Amino acid sequence: MIVEIITTGTELLLGEIVNENSCWLARFLNEHGYTVAYMTTVGDNPDRMKNAFITALGRADIVITSGGLGSTLGDITKKAGASAMGLSLVHVESEYKRLCAHYEHIGRPMSPQLDRQAWFCKGAFILKNDVGTASGSAVTYNGKTLIHLPGPPFEMKIMAQRYMMPWMEKRFGNQGIIRSVVLSVTGMGEPQVESLLMDLLKKQSNPTIALLARPGFIAVRVTAWGKDGEEALDRMEPVIREIEKRIPEHTTVREQGIHPVLAEELKKRELVLCAAESCTGGLIGKLMTDYPGSSSYFKGSCVTYWNEAKEHILGVKKETLDKYTAVSAETAREMAEGARKLYGAHLAVSTTGYAGPGQGERGEDPGLVYIAVSGEAGTRVYKEKFLGDRNNVRMGAAEKAMYRVWQYIHLFNIRRQ
Amino acid sequence: MIVEIITTGTELLLGEIVNENSCWLARFLNEHGYTVAYMTTVGDNPDRMKNAFITALGRADIVITSGGLGSTLGDITKKAGASAMGLSLVHVESEYKRLCAHYEHIGRPMSPQLDRQAWFCKGAFILKNDVGTASGSAVTYNGKTLIHLPGPPFEMKIMAQRYMMPWMEKRFGNQGIIRSVVLSVTGMGEPQVESLLMDLLKKQSNPTIALLARPGFIAVRVTAWGKDGEEALDRMEPVIREIEKRIPEHTTVREQGIHPVLAEELKKRELVLCAAESCTGGLIGKLMTDYPGSSSYFKGSCVTYWNEAKEHILGVKKETLDKYTAVSAETAREMAEGARKLYGAHLAVSTTGYAGPGQGERGEDPGLVYIAVSGEAGTRVYKEKFLGDRNNVRMGAAEKAMYRVWQYIHLFNIRRQ
């Protein structure tokens, strides 16, 4: 079944927000065995929206929209959708009653404007909204299916998981499962990785293999389809083993980026990490605490943007800062050692560098970052160079710092004492 | 001139990466007076890509693609583009020579595979790539324009700024400028804001006004077109003043989210902020250091995920943690006061809460967050409740915390002593 995702909203066309809904929905649908072949974004313009829906219904079996189900003037998705399907909108009594009860409960009168949320495509199945006001809908007509989800990400996700996918499974049957595993390769360029894997890339079908350049690493994505998760993994396994054989083990970790891998490793070894961040400004802390339960392996991060904070909180020596500046191997070393002592953690990682766009105090290029890892095996300092804008440098430095911790743990086989 | 942006790459359809290129390009084009009407994403499938290009060339004047210009097997964008335009690909000698020189310089032989990067649409203008290998191109034929940009974000941005836009301006003339200002409204729901602005929303043309629900606030976007930036701002000004009159001043700040506004305010007043973060895990630090020059108003953030770190580094009392737990008004207060002392800053903000998905240690719902702001006017603590998943809660809490600092500065008219 071919799916097209359509996100609506002029704010997306103005570039005000990044389209995270499309990304989430695509991943969710792929995991359930649906192939997303197109993603389109249109603004809140009735004619263009209707035409985009007609184009989508012509090239996909299922069109899923997100956005424009509310009660404001810009909420025109259901009208455009019905028009593109050649169906009329009807007033759904049960939804009207639900809305009346809801607005009575919060002490607002039911207005004609709010009533917009009670109109749906004729014959549509209503998708409940457990965490918001506007319901979604799903309708099949002339062999094509049109599904409307709300725009707020949280409402969209809950509705897709609880109501859309069960409806789709009932209607279209089990589509199997698509699983992806990403292996990150650090320390090689894309052409080098490609030449090592060329024959595998040429004969791929199920699983497929793709290479993607990421800030700080090359991602090798292996994607397989199976009747269930186990079959998909069985198909992937020999290919992954072959890739790992060809690319030296220590540069390869199985995951999207390094921080979930590092988290797993810390948990497994019962180690606790902390950080001292200058140029990454809290990004390592943010990434390390992205997952629930992170408090078991991450103690915290001390963001010291100022020299005096580096000195007073982390104990970096004034002479070090004066002689070598804040962006130096020596400062990185003392920051990591200071943080490890401060937090009483097994491991500490530090970053200090020039994120840009300006140059460093002694004319250094932006992108120069020192990373230090400190632990029972001593402190190791790395001088790194990142390309790109401020955001690239910061992301690259954070990923690389976490990779250096992971490498340190393996190199010295660090375990809880 | 109507533009369609097409991003290519199967990784986008698998939901592996968020499409930040589309967002950046859309904003960039809007700022230069071009209307982006559609954004499409297709995978590395020759037929689907060609058809998506044909559809786009039918409904837009200019089609701009990003991705697929490299030398790997998946790089098929130029071929699909030429085919959709009805043009052939030709070998460009000057590009071939440039590539030979480049690969000789890095000590790699020029292979037939790498030669893919020397082929372009007949008659195309070559867009130089100053920070990568693959050049882009721009060609007009039968009244339609097709532009190819590379996929890596940094390469795409530099090429768009340095070579694409000058070429477009030469070809299409000055398109004027579109400017957007976003006013953030905290403490009201979307329907409430809409009813206050209903007549303005109904009669809008230039500028246009749109409402958008964001984590922690409602964004009111005012967008105007003008011959130049001044004219656009002149058109916006009366509308913005009217909106500010209708929505109580203290809940309105002019910008996208609060952190750039807070940064401006701190700079203007020569104040220095620091943070103590628990549930936000470094996000406040990350956001406050997103812009260059942030070291003048942000000293750092102390991420204390563990109780003992709260105690030993920030000086939160053991009795407080035992009696009230780590997620309490009392702990938030002591964290902020401790951080202010630790960093020697004018202001400190702290967060402590349950980001979820699990419940708190005494059965509290996820989403409960205490925020404290400490400064010369004493410490104020706020109990907040955020809806959504872990990411929503953390983003909402970080934004709200920075808003509370901004509010504190205004409420007590804090200035550097």
Would you mind describing this structure in some detail?
Two copies of one chain form a homodimer. Chain A has three domains: 2-172, MoaB/Mog-like domain (Molybdenum Cofactor Biosythetic Enzyme, Chain A, 3-Layer(aba) Sandwich); 177-254, Alpha-Beta Plaits (2-Layer Sandwich); 259-411, CinA-like (Maf protein), CATH 3.90.950. The first copy, chain A, has 14 helices and 17 strands. The first copy, chain A, has helices at residues 10-13, 20-31, 46-59, 77-85, 93-105, 153-172, 190-202, 229-246, 259-269, 283-288, 307-312, 318-324, 329-343, 390-411, and strands spanning 2-8, 35-42, 62-66, 89-91, 119-121, 125-127, 136-141, 144-149, 177-185, 208-214, 217-226, 252-254, 273-277, 298-304, 347-353, 368-375, 378-385. In chain A, the strands form four sheets. A six-stranded mixed beta sheet of chain A has the order 2-1-3-8-7-6, sandwiched between helices. A five-stranded mixed beta sheet of chain A has the order 14-13-15-16-17, with helices on both faces. In chain A, strands 10-11-9-12 form a four-stranded antiparallel beta sheet. In chain A, helix 10 (283-288) links the parallel strand 13 (273-277) and strand 14 (298-304). In chain A, helix 2 runs parallel beside helix 6 (153-172) and helix 9 runs parallel beside helix 14. Chains A and B meet through helix 1, helix 2, strand 2, helix 3 and helix 6 of A and helix 1, helix 2, strand 2, helix 3 and helix 6 of B. Strand 2 of chain A pairs antiparallel with strand 2 (35-42) of chain B. Chains A, B: This is Putative competence-damage inducible protein.
